[in-house]
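Handover notes (outgoing to incoming on-call)

Open items:
1. GAL3A protein: sequence verified, structure written out, both below. Nothing else pending on this one.
2. Nothing else urgent.
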Amino acid sequence: MGKRVAVVLAGCGVYDGSEIHESSAVLVHLSREGAQAEVFAPNVDQMHVVDHVKGQPTQEKRNVLVESARIARGNIKDLTKLDVKGLDALIIPGGFGVAKNLSTWATQGKNCTVSKEVEDVLKAFHAAKKPIGLCCISPVLAAKIFPGCELTVGHDTECEKWPYAKTAETMKELGCKHINKHVTEVHVDVKNKLVTTSAFMCNAPIHEIYDGIGKMVKEVIRLA
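GAL3A protein structure tokens:
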């Protein structure tokens, strides 16, 4: 019987939800590993809606669960229905929705709060010693909740290839150990069963991001 893996989404679209390519890569790689993905999202309003052509916020209102359902092809549940007992692992793809809808990282950085539903889910998997896979910006959730954990969001020195490297510095300020890794690599925090990879934190070709997420999924399944 294949592993059952919860995938938590934060909307649909890089600037205000889950990163679509990362989410798709997670689902494809889970399928390839013979695992069963169960998709969840919080039933809350998005922080805001961004016009992805202009990169600017609009006056529109959208719901995180309703938008995430686009990626899940409608097969999705409210995050409040997630029961860790029937699941083997948790994966949270990246996208600004993680920093806007699952937490307040986008506006408050290291002083952010993580939404209670999301924090409860992360703590439940951690307490049950079940693996957690996080990519792109989503490792900041673990940085906030599990002090002293080991994570990667890629590199900690900003350059054209690593435009969001300051995130690594902020995570260090929270007491985490940041491990520099290439986009096709993962870091495994064995003690906390956390598997992280940088994905679109790196200005890399999409197939490299896809491959890095594949390694993350493989490690998560191995640890489950």
